[in-house]
Amino acid sequence: MTTTEADSASVPGSEAGPGGAPAGTAPEPTDENVWLEDIYGEEQLAWVKEQNSRTEDLLEDADYAALEGSILEVLDSTDRIAMVGKRGDWYYNFWKDQQNPKGLWRRTTWESYCTDSPEWDVLLDVDALSATEGEEWVFHGATFFRPAPGAPYRLALLALSPDGGDANRYREFDVETRSFVDPAAGGFDLPTAKGNVSWLDADTLLVSSTADGLPRTASSYARTAVTLTRGTSLASAPRLFEVPEDHMMAVVAHDSTPGFERTFAVDYIDFFNRTNLVLRGGEWVAIDVPTDVNVSAHREWLLFRPQQDWVLDGTTYPAGSLLAAGFEDYLAGGRSLSVLFTPDARTSLQSWSWTRNFLLLNLLRDVSSEIRVLDPSRPVAGADSAEGAWASTPLDACPPLHDVNAYAVDDEDETAADGGAGDDFWLVATGFTTPSTLMRGTLERNHDDGAQPGVASRHAVVKTSPSFFADSEYEVQQHFAVSEDGTRVPYFQVSARNLPLDGQNPTQLSGYGGFEISRTPAYSGTVGRAWLERRTAGPAGGSDGHSRGGVYVVANIRGGGEYGPSWHRAALKENRHKAFQDFAAVARDLISRGVTSRERLGCVGGSNGGLLVGNMLTRYPDLFGAVSCGVPLLDMRRYTRLSAGHSWIAEYGDPDVPEQWEYIRTFSPYHLLRDGVEYPETFIWTATSDDRVGPVQARKMAARMLAMGIPNVWFHEALEGGHAGASDNRQAAALQARSQHFLWKALAGGLS
Length: 752
What we know:
The chain is α+β, with helices and mostly antiparallel strands. Helices cover 18% and strands 32% of the residues. It is built from 14 helices and 39 strands. Helix 2 packs antiparallel against helix 6, helix 2 crosses helix 14 and helix 6 packs parallel to helix 14. The chain is globular and about 70 Å long. The N terminus is likely disordered.
């Protein structure tokens, strides 16, 4: 028998207070699977291998092999857009394909990039590096040192993970010699750890790290930052910044923009609260804002985005608005703020990006993109908060039900008048049935020649991704479900045209609902091939006797950021259940509209989305025929003690606090399992090397379900790949194929 209610049993290793729980904390339910928390233990990995073998025997049939190959073809396609980032005169790209599974870091010129077959200058072959060094390196990006004006970019710090996890080794690389700078000659080579690095000057780094004995926070991130000079060690480097142990992490960064050189530090208190500081005269000066106001700097400007309504000098600035002030004026005590954007019930600010002279705002209106260009040199006289204080011009580049994002090419370059790209911008557009398109444009002010005041923009297509499925045969619809409290919840439905509404269509419902992350339209060759184009076998498809393809649905539930901070905060902590109610409402709406039925409806989610579908499994088992639950949070009593879990208390609450455990326990799937319930077909998957959520919660959930005798529970754990579950295209194809094949077999053919 499995005990799922809190009782008096203590957890091994705890110092028990009254009732068996650590003094002052909520009691812990009995956990018969604590032994699985030893991630790399021999016995534990033997259990994992046994479960992997059982799942592979079930899923890896001939259809699976074809599906995996089809997905890998998409991921390895050489026709994909090679996205680039500009540094100096070069455009850099990281590329994986069949011949280079770990990838190539490379660069090209703009003229070459615009051709159909660019000539790439390969800087680093990660496969060759891994073979030479005997380490399965995963490339996580490059941070360049800004050279003197007119000099070429040459030195960079490369982030390399040994297993795809969040911990990186930073190594100095010379792009001209195409080699690492030898540590014996003073080259930087930081041990593998969680943290961040920033160049202060050519011979100095600002480093936040947990390596070399530097302290870490309870969330497993860096607690201190140091100033590291060439030829010295982290352990001996002078401390620059430090945060309390119970805060999330310390971050330092140097802004090297000429004329605006500044060093910043951020004390991340938790996921949504932070203190921002700037170094002045050898002392840290806090930027005086509430901790839930996001702050960013660009040249002479400070921008603020409050997460909750901010009352300042008698004026209330709504959550999700964007405000501006002069950097020096604000630090000197001035509190005159310009309102650049104010959200409404349908429109939210998702992100912003500065070119040298303009500000690009990426907005969502009912989860469809809108883009506005703001000109700080043209204040709007007498503008109220709804209009915005800087002249604003819409960017005509956003079709309905699409996701389009604009961001600067190189805001530190000269402007076009001087032969530079400082006011150039990228546009990336995508939709569920629209392959991604990359455009490049230029912004400039209208001249005083009778033209309408504002910003003129010119943009043209640079690259277009190929189509990987017959996308013209499918349509995208947006619907709204009504949640239990009356909230309208949008969702996207992608399906064949003229879909029969008889409840017999295999339907995959996806969601996230956390951390203010938005689920927006996006083209996926994998979903197209593995789900939309797949067909049921003959009469099994429905009452009309015809085979059916799959229906793909994305739910925009509360907890996400689709409608800004208020949409996110509506499902925080004790209100978490609203996210689950929203998702269940979408499921019911799909069933009531005749799109699908309980037997044909499956759900899929990863990470926080794994917690979401774990709650569908345990709270709404009557709505789903199958659940695919990836890299999930599931044990919400012990999540703060596992991997980086402590950092998410601001999202979910602290289970050690008795009053908070009372509501957390209501959405802890590991503790909601009950005997005598008909649960959906269940597939739980994770990765051994995931150092963010970790594999432990997935292991324990599967083990408990199996011990309870719940039929058709399957588990798979990839040995590498980190929180993404895959570190190369081959692993990614296998991961996606297992999940998609499981859902299809469960909903369209039956598992056997």
